[in-house]
Every structure is written in structure tokens, then in C-alpha cells.
Amino acid sequence: MSTLPYLAGVELGGTKVFVLRARGRTIEERVMIPTTTPQETLSAAAALLRRWHEAGPFEALGIGSFGPLRLDRAAADFGHMLPTPKPGWTGADIYGALAGVLPCPAAIDTDVNGAALAEVRWGAGAEGDGPSDCLCYITIGTGLGAGFALHGRPLHGAMHPELGHIMTRRAPDDSFEGACPFHSDCIEGLVSGPALAKRFGVAGNRIAADDPRWDDVAHDIAQMVGTILLTTAARQVLIGGGVGMGRTDLLERVRAKVVAQLAGYLPFVTEATIGSIVRPPALGDQAGPLGAVALAMDALEAARLR
């Protein structure tokens, strides 16, 4: 029988929530809840956490959520959702609704920062001689989010990274106006799932791989990747999510365009190395749930050190 403590995890996404119970990095139970209203969604997740805790007490809770989030513990609205395109979720108290039902240490971060931590510890960032010192995890799906693990810790500052809303240089002759309600043609507004549906007129998974319109999408994603490599010198840029992992042909186009756009300026980015730098997450669709587990482990470690 395992002597590892029970850990609780919640991965809160824009369309679905995974609530899980784990021992170490082994997820023993997982339940999916649709993301509807904050009240309905968070109440259902909290009720499940309470029930599991009564059956076998949790030692810590990790919450990985879509954002933007307030992560400054000194702020009055710590753990709340900041203005978001997700209807009804602005101002939602994510941390309070979930951590408030369990008498144990808890941590909250973005789902992508959590996934980056999981990939550093157990995935792509752990495949070399030691943990990667700088890894970026991107999810492209309902929105576009990016998290960074820097020296084994999530990157924070005034906020967390909001890479989805950077502006990139557009492909020549691309007239697509974008789909972001805040910025129109930021990178999320150009390549997220809803943006692709607006750009193509149908869902992206119904567009043939050889459709020439994918060239503009690959150009835009490559612009983002190039920006990451130039600003952070990340060793890996992992592209996950429904768009990221669902189209290997698109990833190949992105790699070629990254090399071409950087034009030899970064000596570590070449045709020979780009495949190991820009790649899918090694943990696949488990990066997000395991990210919540990684955050729970960090919360437990921090509590033990206090």
C-alpha cells in the first residue's frame, strides 16, 4: 500500500474542468466537469473535493486555471479571475471557492504555468542531463496561453505571462482581421480555435492539411515562437492544446518558418535542432492535470518549510 500522501488537483479550462486525486505523480481518480457558470462549475468541483477528502484526507491542493488570474498573495483579490473574454467569469474567486473547502495547504497558478512545471519535472524538460533551466509551454485551443518554468519555478512578476495577447508581424497580404475581443489580431486572435473557425469559415479540423491558408497560420505561430526564443532563450517551446497537438503537419510548417524567420541569428536554432526545440509536450494531454499535481506538491513543500 502506498505511503505517499493524497494530493488534490483541479485543472480549470475554458470548456471543461478535471478534478483529480493523486498519490505522488500517479493520478488515481479523475472526474470531468463541464465549464459553465462560475457558481455551477466551482460548486461541483468543491463538492467532489469535500467528498474525496472525507474518504481519504488530502495533504495539499493544486489549482491550475485558465486566466488571467491575480496571483499576488498580498492583493485583496488574490486567486480571482481578472477581466477575461470568458463570459461571466471576470471576478470569479477561483482560489476561495476551491481551497476554502479543504483544511490543507493550497497553491494556484495558471494552467499553462502548471503544465510547464510538469514538463520540466517529468516530461520534455527532464529528458536531458538534468531539468531544463528555461521551458515554455503553450496551449492553443479555445484561447492561447503560455507558461514558463524558469529554474524549476513558474515565472511571475507583476502578473503571470500573457503571451496570447502579444502583437506579431503579420504575413504579407494576410487580411484576416482577427478574433480577439480585446485586441483583434493579437496572436490569440489569429490562431486560437475560434480564430481559425472565423478565418476559415469552418472549424480548423475540417480544413485539409494542404490548404494554402495554413501558411499564414504557421507564419503567425512562428512569429510567436521566434519572439519567445529571442526574449527568453528557452530550451524548449512545447505546443499543446487541440490546435497544437492535433495538427502535426502544422507543427512542421511552424518549425521551418521559425528557422527561416530567425535567419541564422540565434546559433542554437538550426534545421538540425529545431525539432527538439519546438515540439509537442512529452506528457501529451496529461501535462495540464499533472501540472495541478506539481502545484500541490509545491504547496505541501512550502508548508513543511514554514
UniProtKB/TrEMBL annotation:
A Pfam family matched in the record: ROK
Alphabetized UniProt keyword annotations: Magnesium, Metal-binding, Zinc
Origin: domain of life: Bacteria
Catalytic reaction list: D-fructose + ATP = D-fructose 6-phosphate + ADP + H(+)
Species this chain originates from: Sphingobium limneticum
EC number annotated for this UniProt entry: 2.7.1.4
The protein's required cofactors: Mg(2+)
CDD domains: ASKHA_NBD_ROK_BsFRK-like (cd24067)
Protein name in the entry: fructokinase
UniProt-listed Gene3D superfamilies: 3.30.420.40
MF (Gene Ontology): fructokinase activity; metal ion binding
PANTHER family: FRUCTOKINASE (PTHR42742:SF3), TRANSCRIPTIONAL REPRESSOR MPRA (PTHR42742)
Classification via PROSITE patterns: ROK
